[in-house]
Amino acid sequence: MAHSWPTSTDVARLAGVSRTTVSFVLNERNDMAISPATRDRVLEAANALGYQPNAPARQLAGGASLTIGLVLRQEPSQVASDALLPQTVQGVGDAARGADYQVLVESLPPAPGGYRRLLHSRRVDGLIVSGPLADDVELRRVFEDGSPIVLQGHATTLTAPSVDVDNVAGARAAVSHLVERGHKSIAMITNAPLTYTSATERLDGYKLALREAGIKFDPALVAEGAFVAQSGFAAMSTLLHSRSFTAVFVASDVLALGAMGAVRAGGLRIPSDISIVGFDDIPLAAYFDPPLTTVSVPAYALGKTAGNLLLAQIRGEPVPQRTLLDTELKVRESVGPVAARRQPLERTDKIASERS
């Protein structure tokens, strides 16, 4: 059985203080107003448990780098496809500059490891982790060890402060809009694998809208996407060749662009054959053909809020556990009434037979 090393959370519990206070005491932050009695209590608890802060945590607590890290939990190729990233980085940067900090942006592919190396080599004072996985063991350990962490997104197994949009409400609004236009057979393409919380939350919103409309959820109408337009094309192609539906909720505008290409490749039209709603409202969404109805995400506000929360945490100030920002449905021309469509599956089969 693996040995369980004590964490700063254990020390805080034994000493009866906050984890931030433990970090300040053990890393000799003499600039913080902590009474001698509290310092003694923390040191006694740490000695009793045999706890020693690791080197990256000591660097973080010292606050000497004046740099915060923005970690993107995606492959570099996926980062390149993130059309909202410039707005998010701008928001984080504006928050950092307001406190005389700078920002280090790092792509960390979704595989085990990486945070401790980043903290140790880059000497950042804290991390914003964008797109956290549902169960990131190392991230949890780094946070429990005293490193200031803010999630841009949400991880159910981690208690670090987080900032996100209300993915459930946004997806619900998108699908409800399709229902209001008369659609009852509605497919979905996820924005990412379901190991990402944003993907599961948007799927939850899709299911909620169907349930409220009295429409039975059909798992066969859900296809998994993975960040890039090519996966949207592939997912839509699979749906078109296996199921009949009149509308689709694509939980990412980038994937929606690929999905629209697949619809046209099947000889169908948008929205007369298939209506499409996206999610994100990337800058190009209004210029798709047709312009895309989508859920608008406040990307700049997400970045700036995450930056301000992290800086407050670095200063030892209390921050809210979870911050949710509102989304807004932008109605454009990619959705039409169900009465205007033709049968998509029959049309696709016809095109396929004509080409064979």
Outline:
elongated
Treating each run of at least 4 consecutive H or I residues as one helix, how many helices?
A: 14
β content, as a range?
Answer: 5-15%
End-to-end Cα distance: 61 Å
Work out the oligomeric state of the chains in this entry.
single chain
Helix % is: 40-55%
Q: Rounded to an integer, what's the Rg over CA atoms? A: 24 Å
Q: Can you count the beta strands?
A: 12
Low-pLDDT windows of residues: 59-63, 340-356
Strands of the widest sheet, in order across it, are 2-1-3-4-5-11
> How would you characterize the largest beta sheet?
6 strands, parallel
Compressed to H and E, one letter per element, the order equals: HHHHEHHEHEHEEHEHEHEHEEHEEH
- Backbone structural class: alpha/beta
The average pLDDT value, as a whole number, equals: 85
Outline the fold blueprint:
Elements lengths: L7 H8 L3 H8 L9 H14 L5 H8 L4 E6 L3 H5 L4 H13 L4 E6 L7 H8 L4 E4 L6 H8 L4 E4 L9 E4 L1 H14 L5 E4 L7 H16 L9 E2 L5 H14 L4 E4 L2 H13 L9 E6 L12 E4 L2 H16 L7 E4 L2 E3 L13 H12 L1
Parallel strand pairs: 1-2, 1-3, 3-4, 4-5, 5-11, 6-7, 6-8, 8-9, 9-10
Antiparallel strand pairs: 10-12
Helix pairs in contact: 1-2, 1-3, 2-3, 4-7, 6-13, 9-10, 11-12
